[in-house]
Amino acid sequence: MRRRIVVLGISIITAFGFAAAFVYQQFSAEGESVLPPPDPNALVRAHSPVIGPANAPVTIVEFFDPSCGACRALHPIVKQIMAKHLGDVRLVIRYVLFHKASDEAARILETAHGQGLFEPVLEAILEAQAEWHADPKAQKAWEAAGAAGLDVEKARQASRSPEVDAVLSKDMADVKTFGVRRTPTLFVNGKPLTKLGAEPLQELVQSEIDRAAQ
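RE: above sequence
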């Protein structure tokens, strides 16, 4: 019995180690080849949610899947970079629908965008991601959004509107056009971030800030 407990404990630790290694690899590995878009201006669409000043000299465009664990891990890093370079950096979100609950979660975010609550709802559903990312209806994401101030009744109606359908369709069309195969995929002033991680992102942002100041 004691031996069985020891073996079980080793198995759990080993499984946890593999999971942690996978998450680390997913977040820090070299990215797949992503070419600069033929038209960098097309990275930002009129409908895209924007966090930060409209006239910031540096624009980070993130192809973002709300169900993606790496996107969740990256988000506080992006916030720290924006806080460090206050007023110089803005973040533009493009929706990517690669996972089971991604479509529903993106609809929540887009209705929050329409209600002027994109940032608090984004924070809330990312915090609750583990509770809903495998649920196509993303019920816990709806609950988290409601707790963050979203008018859920109005949002549920708006989430199936032709306008929201058009936003998601356009973003997914751009996902194909720009060769996005994983999330998060980032561009800084139109330049692809070829290695995912805090340091490479900070370096690319800093280089663009320096270039804008010249």
